[in-house]
Amino acid sequence: MRFYDNHFKKNKEEGMEEAVKYLIIAILENNDTERPILMHSLRVGYRLEEYNYETNLIIAGILHDIVIETHVTNKDIANNFDPEIAKLIKAYSLYDDFTEILEQYDLNYPVDYKFVKNLLVLKCIDYADILKHYSVAIHTEEYIHKLRKFKNRFHEILKNEPGYNQFLEQYEKLNENRKYHADNF
Questions:
Q1: Tens of pLDDT, residues 137-153
Q2: Cα dihedral sign, 33-35-39-40
Q3: Which of 61, 94, 127 is the last residue of a domain?
Q4: What's this model's pTM, rounded to 2 decimal places?
Q5: Nearest alpha-carbon partner for 55 in 25, 21, 18
Q6: Which residues are within 8 A (CB) of 76 and not within 5 positions of it... i.e. 6 or more apart?
Q7: What is the C-alpha to C-alpha distance for residues 56 and 122, in angstroms, rounded to an integer?
Q8: What is the DSSP-derived secondary structure letter of residue 159?
Q9: Domain range spanning residue 159?
């Protein structure tokens, strides 16, 4: 029996609950990192839910770091969740700055625009949560450059998305904090 069945598409809360259970089991059984991925993953998923994104994107949000941070594989996700969820998580775990995936889209490769947009919305929410809840000290110049590149590259695609607006808000706060620290310390 699959951990997650397609009937959860009809019931968002049940699907979210199953994803949370799967995430907790994965963390308890095979988590090698000391990073606090449980609360981060829950916030990402629930923020997507708050903005009324589709169920599969919400579930992918809950599970977005599972392949990167645990021993769960893309194949495990594909065997236990809807194929669309598995595809989002696989792409999320493969692309670091996401420029490559959009370049494929720009070059007329067969990339689904909705899929790309969902992937980018997920990244916005992920970045926004990291910016809001984790120390400014971890945001190196390289990280700031990656955020700026993301913002500049994907603004036109994402400018009307609530997740992007949340990212912009947190990005601006980071810049204000950095300016304050540069001027006062």
A1: 566 788 888 888 889 98
A2: negative
A3: 94
A4: 0.84
A5: 18
A6: none
A7: 11
A8: T
A9: 96-185
